[in-house]
């Protein structure tokens, strides 16, 4: 006879025999709880802690990193895997860089990636560049940022040309899928920001312009891109273009902030503040250039007056020298008047010069005028 543990045998209406298997029964009559097999427990443990199964060096290193929180011990084992280039070496290289960053040693993390990346597969290179970009941003090494971003942009643009629509971001053991176009916009924005800190205004302005071209395809608006581009235009002296962009940003941001609903975030308020500050800086540049222009015009006018004064003085010296030989002539008066009349018809003679020549009929006055002009004649070299 079969026990309740083994089940019950019977037959249905068609004469088919069946066996009903029941769950084990405990001493109190209730069904005994189900227990997972050791294999299932191990798999659940590895999945919960996100560590690989097995007892390899890489698996033990991940256990030290994620479970025991022993970063120096994990670094030692991961370094061993990378140097021997053994099992899971590609993953070990990335994990070693992460462990070094966790220990506040980002420069060493960048060095180890650069030293061993040539051994990695081609499909890992983009991931390594992403890690390098994060490290260089933390270190504020803008030259290295530009190099890495240009490589990532080249790969992303090739993917977009081949029809790829999305890009998967992996960060902190989580995956996020974003539009590849959005990825390209972020890369151009990061490139422009790095170039801004390197004072390469022309390249930075071009990077922000490229970002806005891809932004138009997504039909999204980022005020920071336009404000940063306006800053580059200001540094390049293209003030009218900068003013137009800043006024557009300010108008759009204020329009959003004036809505009656409460769905206005801090980004719009920040855009208004940034665009206002940039416009104030632009106004200061305008005022400075206007003052410089006024000073230049005043200096030019003073130089012209001096040069005219020098020319008139030389004329008077010549005219007075000729007239002085005729002072004792009884017809000197008429001759002086004739010379003064001819002086009127000459181009460049002024009314003031005519009056001086007329008054020079008196010999003593003439002598005093010559002395005064000789004493007050300016130096040409000092005003050139």
Describe this entry's structure for a reader.
- By secondary structure, this protein is mainly α.
- Among the domains are: 48-117; 303-383, no CATH class.
- The protein is built from 15 helices and four strands.
- The strands form two sheets. Strands 1-2 form a two-stranded antiparallel sheet. A two-stranded antiparallel ribbon has the order 3-4.
- α4 (89-102) packs antiparallel against α5 and α10 (223-235) runs parallel beside α12.
- The longest helix is centred in the C-terminal third of the chain and has 59 residues, at 266-324.
Give a topology summary.
Blueprint lengths: L7 E4 L5 E4 L17 H12 L7 H10 L4 H14 L4 H14 L3 H11 L8 H15 L2 H20 L4 E6 L2 E6 H18 L3 H18 L4 H13 L3 H19 L8 H59 L7 H14 L5 H9 L3 H14 L8
Antiparallel strand pairs: 1-2, 3-4
Write a concise synopsis of the structure shown.
With 384 residues, this protein is mainly alpha-helical. The protein contains 15 helices and 4 strands.
Rg calculated over all Cα atoms: 44 Å
Helix share bin:
55-70%
Task: Write down how many β-strands occur, each being a DSSP E stretch of 2 or more residues.
Answer: 4
Return the string of H and E elements: EEHHHHHHHEEHHHHHHHH
Terminal CA distance? 128 Å
State the helix count.
Answer: 15
Share of residues in strands: 5-15%
Q: Please give the largest β-sheet.
A: 2 strands, antiparallel
Mean pLDDT: 73
Q: Give the CA-based shape.
A: elongated
Could you say which structural class the secondary elements and strand pairing correspond to?
mainly alpha
Low-pLDDT sequence parts: 1-9, 18-23, 260-265, 332-350, 352-384
Order of adjacent strands in the largest pleated sheet: 1-2
